[in-house]
Specification:
221 residues; single chain; 5-stranded mixed sheet
Length: 221
């Protein structure tokens, strides 16, 4: 039995002599295309057409160099500080990256967890959502500024007494929010404390003890 494929029944191109080989096609074969196509750093190089990432990298670098910067002066934990920062810098990044105050934690960086809570002019704010350049002349208090020397703030001591923390990542934000909650007068009941502390998340689930610590500080319980 013959296994040779049957002769092609396709008519030769018009104008070609019968039986003569067809002119080579200018289109690349699949094998040639694959062999000459390379992916380099996310840019496709095919048929001599190169689109490299350097163009985008240069644009990003130029944009970063051109980013406007401003000088801001504010009082942090009783000390006057003046820094020049990118206008997009958050208060959280100013504290952590420029002033070395790393007690305020970067959790979600979207204002949803409360780990970055600090006091600005006595009111609690999410420092990750607050632009530093808007705080000219403001007074900022972080967890590092609560204690008086070796004497802890009453709420810091209450957190220890009530064992109101576990991993500790959210603790600085919880304490700062608790201080603000007490100053605002929202401590008439455990339910009210929970309501006004609801913006601070504890993934370890220490909420009952956190409420007790705030109660102890507010009412001496």
């Amino acid at each position: 039995m013959s296994i040779e494929p049957p002769a092609s029944t396709v008519a030769p191109p018009e104008g070609s002599p019968e039986g003569s080989p067809s002119a080579p096609s200018s289109d690349p074969s699949r094998r040639t295309f694959i062999a000459t196509t390379t992916v380099v750093g996310g840019a496709v190089v095919a048929g001599g057409l190169i689109s490299g990432p350097n163009v985008f990298g240069a644009e990003t670098a130029n944009a970063a160099e051109a980013a406007p910067r401003s000088r801001v002066s504010l009082t942090v934990n009783g000390e006057r500080r003046t820094v020049t920062v990118d206008n997009r810098t958050s208060l959280l990044d100013l504290l952590r990256e420029h002033l070395g105050l790393t007690g305020s934690k970067k959790g979600c960086n979207a204002g949803a967890c409360g780990a970055c809570t600090v006091l600005v002019d006595g009111r609690r704010v999410n420092s990750c959502l607050t632009l530093a350049i808007r705080l000219e002349g403001a007074e900022v208090t972080t967890i590092e500024g609560l204690a008086k020397g070796d004497r802890l703030h009453p709420l810091q001591q209450a957190f220890i007494d009530q064992d109101a923390f576990q991993c500790g990542f959210c603790t600085s934000g919880q304490i700062m929010s608790g201080v603000g909650c007490i100053k605002e007068g929202h401590t008439d009941s455990p339910e009210e404390i929970r309501e006004f502390m609801s913006g601070n998340l504890c993934r370890c689930g220490c909420y009952v003890k956190i409420v007790r610590a705030v109660e102890q500080t507010a009412h001496g319980k």
